[in-house]
Each structure stands twice: as structure tokens, then as C-alpha cells.
């Protein structure tokens, strides 16, 4: 179990080091010997339990495991922020833009609770909807790069669709996201029907927050995701939940129990104010028909 001071950057660093050591075919004992550190020290590092991390040790491990240079830079950046509890990840600062911290977290989460007031959540987007967003989201890129981004997101969606232990995904989506036209009315109709269909899966719950309920929390809440992780057999959390807040120039990761509790409470208010799953599917299909008529 991670020590009380264990942080998200430290745990992510440990995950990547474990993965690349395994890829290199080295045991912990052999890798520790080659790095000239104790096996217990490497074990703590891989579990995110080592609060004193030296950049030179990370560089040495990356060299031993043949980690690509860009990922090495990202892991060194994580090491420099190893003891930060509420973590502001500014794009291009310490962590390269090409290193997606959130996707790494999402891939190992067992549960996601997401509030999206204006946009369909990425894990539930159709390729048509995602592709229609790409030119405005990434204006300096080529059509080929936009298509590649769409394929990458489609691969991310596997965590929801896989047969073995799919992630539990509970989402509240604002009515504005259903009515704002992305691409074309036809794209929106297909997107909303896809949402309704996804909401019938055992691991996915989609609720719509209609305009009529106003602001359930008394304020306009930004989009956020609460990520939860697998607990031990005794019910004790091996890894604490994390709140993810996406920004235009950087992302915020909150681990403090009080902060996470605040967002859990706010999410429950939104969830209770939203339509139930069945009524939400009916609303999705109704608005899909409206888009079809407009098209």
C-alpha cells in the first residue's frame, strides 16, 4: 500500500518504470543490480512509495530499459514533481506536450464519474463527432493528423467496450451538449443515438441534466472527472481517487481527501438532479430525431 505521502506523479512514474523494465526482460533484482541500487529501493520506486527520487536515477533506469528520449524527458519531469499533492500540469512545462498524463491514469482506473456540461465525453464520442471537432481544436495540424487523433481516441474507448473488466463509467451530460451542433445535424443525430445505446451497457450509466433544473449546485460547475482505482481485498484503498480538471493551457489533478470529497458531493447533487437513465435515453432519442428533421 502506498505510503500516506504517495502522490499521483510518483505513482505514474512507478507504473511506467515497471512497464519498461518488464519490456526489457529484467527482473527487479537484476535491474537493481545493474542500476547499483537496492532491490527494495527499486520496489518502492515502482510502487510510488519513494519520496526521495533523483533525476539521475530515473535517467539511468530509462537508459537501461531503452526508454525513448521523449518519454525519458516526461518521466524525469514526473520525478521533479514527485511530492506535489494537488498537481497543476502546465503543457510544455517539465512534462512534454506529447505525454498525456490523463490517458495513463484513465487506462488503470476501475471507475470514472464525469460531468460534462457542454461536450460529449471523449470515451462516448463517435468518430464523426470527434473528427468534426478536430480542425478547431488543432488548427495547425493536417487532416492526416486529425484522423490519427480520432483513431487514438477510438483506441482509448476500449476500456469501456472490452469484455474483461471494463471500466465503470457514470456520466452526467448537460442538455447543451445535446443541442449544440457539432459538424452537422446528421453527425449529432448519430452521436446521440450512440449515447443512448451506450447507456444500455451494464458498465455505463448516462444521465442528462436538462435546462429545466437550472444550476443544482448554485453555481456553474466546470467539467471534471473523478477517477477511482482498485482497492485491496480488505476494502482499504490501494490508491486514492483523483479529480481531473482539464484546462486550456494545463490540467489540474486533485488528490487531497477534502478536495475529492467536495467534488464527490457536487457530483452526487448533479446526478440526483439529472434525469434517470431510462428518461435520459428517451431524451437522447427525441433530440436525435429533432436533429434529423433539421438535417
From TrEMBL:
<dbReference type="InterPro" id="IPR010982">
    <property type="entry name" value="Lambda_DNA-bd_dom_sf"/>
</dbReference>
<dbReference type="GO" id="GO:0003677">
    <property type="term" value="F:DNA binding"/>
</dbReference>
<dbReference type="Pfam" id="PF19054">
    <property type="entry name" value="DUF5753"/>
</dbReference>
<feature type="domain" description="HTH cro/C1-type">
    <location>
        <begin position="17"/>
        <end position="71"/>
    </location>
</feature>
<dbReference type="Pfam" id="PF13560">
    <property type="entry name" value="HTH_31"/>
</dbReference>
<protein>
    <submittedName>
        <fullName>Helix-turn-helix domain-containing protein</fullName>
    </submittedName>
</protein>
<dbReference type="InterPro" id="IPR001387">
    <property type="entry name" value="Cro/C1-type_HTH"/>
</dbReference>
<dbReference type="InterPro" id="IPR043917">
    <property type="entry name" value="DUF5753"/>
</dbReference>
